[in-house]
Amino acid sequence: MASPAARSASSRTVPARPNTAFRQLRGRLSPGEFAAAVRRSAREIGEQVSCDARYVGRVESGEIRCPNYAYERVFRHMFPGLTLPDMGFAPREAVRGRGARTAAVSAAPLATDPDHRDTRIQICEESDVLRRAFITGGPAAALGFAALHPIEAAAASDRVPPPRPPAGGRAGAAEATAVEQAVRYIRLLDDRHGAEGIYHRATQPLRAAYDLLEADVRHRSVSDRLHTGAGELAISVGWLAHDSGRFDDARSHYAEALATARVCGDAALEAHAFCNTAFLARDAARPREAVRAAQAGQQAAKHLASPRLLSLLALREAGGWAGLADRPGCEQALARAERLFAAGPRDGDPEWMTFYGEAELAGLTAQCWSALGDAGRAAEHAHRAVALQDPHFTRNIALFTAELAADLAADGAPEEAAAAGLRVLALLEEVRSARIRTLLATTAHTLRPHHTLPPVADFLSRHATAGAGAGAGDGEAAGDGEAAAEVVGVG
């Protein structure tokens, strides 16, 4: 039996991390409402769980790293096809028996150990098998979910009929729920794998969602959910286009979401659309538009009781001021963003903002300083962004590390930049993003004069090999992203 000291040391091995994936699955329900839904689902399958708001809070805070078997069966019933890691939990082997002793290694976001990588691959393969049942049947199939999965899409698309209007030309709560789940599923895929490979496939459920807006809906509450869901789906698909370097497509999707928000009078959706529009404008070298869109978003969000949303919109505004080389304007917006962020999370925070934590604040701040030409300050914030990032957001880990590499290269630290670049190359085995490849290309260009340094030579060689081995599906997005980078630079 382990001594108290040993148990204490073990408990400190893996600190609790908020379960942002599970928070996304809760959606708009309060913790108490979600707990009631869990209990109802348990009764449907003959389980008995005493779920309450406190339990939900413990899960979302990360205190419960893996549910017991009864809760696991209930959660799988509620979210068909999703595995425990998909829901943000640690794999059972990581908290039971032998696996628990290596949990610290498994949790490391930048680990390059081959055994660790094999474990992650195994988990992903298990997830793929279970997702097939989810994306090829039921309400998910009606919305074209099969088109979303980057591995199974080709085979599944042959088995799933094209989306059709609901029976009798009417849409109800089931269709609204399917649209909301499509949004969550796209975001989970993007968090882990990046935008490329799923953008074009994601347009199918988007078309199906907007078709539902033409169906007969008896209840205003369902109509509002359908409009909000379709708008959020348009933003999610727009982000996939944005991150793939397809700026014109992204602009169109964001405009569609903004129009939907105004049709149904949804201030939260309007603020979200303006937030993403501002980000896109900054990346497309339209900084004045970025400032105006961010300010419009703040106007839409002022009554939403979400300081964190206003904080993110202030950061979007700061990015626009940085693009205009307006240092005082940027610094004022950054200070406002930090002050609002410090006010803490609120119940009114939108579901889509689960990604916005200290790491994102630091990463976006780094981008502003980089655009202002202060590479040293940018590198400090990028370091913080990498260190604080939740392992769930694999894509963001790769992005912030790529930004760190670019900032270090610009700041005259070639060996450190090369080391960060190598970590990104390892992560690109799981993540596909034109934005990240563009940042690496910028770093490689900056480091070429230092090719005699062994770490730099290693990075340049591996980067060249990775570029030569890019898949056929990468070409279109890579070209768009690299063209944009010539105008925008880092960020």
TrEMBL record:
Compositional bias annotation for Low complexity: 480-491
Region of interest (Disordered), ranges: 470-491
Organism superkingdom: Bacteria
InterPro entries per record: TPR-like_helical_dom_sf (IPR011990)
UniProt-recorded name of the protein: C1 regulatory protein
